[in-house]
Amino acid sequence: MQNKVPEVTIAFWTIKILSTTVGETGADYLAVHVGLGTTVTIAIMLTLLAAALVTQLKQRAYVPWIYWLTVVLVSVVGTQLTDVLTDVLGVSLYVSTAVFGVLLGLIFEIWYRNEKTLSIHTIVTRKRELFYWAAILVTFALGTAAGDLATEAIGLGFSLGVLVFGFLLVMMGMAAYLGANRVLTFWLAYILTRPFGASLGDLLSQSREYGGMGMGTIVTSVVFLSVIVILVILHTATRTRHSKASAT
């Protein structure tokens, strides 16, 4: 297979952050405003995610719309996994953050022992792709738990949460630029985009009474999803032009 993951560019990180925000606001909208509840929402989204993953795994190369649809669905499911533990089972955010952190470490350990690399530039076999998506799912769950822990349990709030996690993301970028291990900085940044996007989503969607800007989950989700669609269309068009240029 060709590499199944897109190149890490500004567009990649932009779509990733937007998808994490949609994961936060979309999950809240379905569970709370539509009234489906956490359990029903996660059951529906797991079904959709399974279908998207099967479609993604069948591809022999990176297909932008399939890949990013899967990421958005993973974002929603990852958010809901943490919400089930916290809201339904009453698990402390400290515990869930620690558990997801250990689980992600185990996935990376098994992945590296089997494949001798954690680089996303080498997702060219089915086994590596399965390791990749397992890691992605847990990063979303871990990022959700860590973000909720910081903004709610510790009390940073949405605005400060955006600033803190945004600053940490910038630090990861600077570290990579200055020569730090690219694989390590990538995965740390990938984890951090989740609490950053979630804090941004809450800041925009939550009512002013709770420290938000009052846009609501519907408006926030629709706006961010629209931007994702536009960026994916532009990305696909660019890839198509490059492919045609290479063929001539």
UniProtKB/TrEMBL annotation:
<feature type="transmembrane region" description="Helical">
    <location>
        <begin position="184"/>
        <end position="204"/>
    </location>
</feature>
<feature type="transmembrane region" description="Helical">
    <location>
        <begin position="30"/>
        <end position="53"/>
    </location>
</feature>
<keyword id="KW-0812">Transmembrane</keyword>
<keyword id="KW-0472">Membrane</keyword>
<feature type="transmembrane region" description="Helical">
    <location>
        <begin position="88"/>
        <end position="110"/>
    </location>
</feature>
<keyword id="KW-1133">Transmembrane helix</keyword>
<feature type="transmembrane region" description="Helical">
    <location>
        <begin position="210"/>
        <end position="234"/>
    </location>
</feature>
<feature type="transmembrane region" description="Helical">
    <location>
        <begin position="65"/>
        <end position="82"/>
    </location>
</feature>
<dbReference type="Pfam" id="PF03988">
    <property type="entry name" value="DUF347"/>
</dbReference>
<protein>
    <recommendedName>
        <fullName>Membrane-anchored protein</fullName>
    </recommendedName>
</protein>
<dbReference type="InterPro" id="IPR007136">
    <property type="entry name" value="DUF347"/>
</dbReference>
<feature type="transmembrane region" description="Helical">
    <location>
        <begin position="153"/>
        <end position="177"/>
    </location>
</feature>
<feature type="transmembrane region" description="Helical">
    <location>
        <begin position="130"/>
        <end position="147"/>
    </location>
</feature>
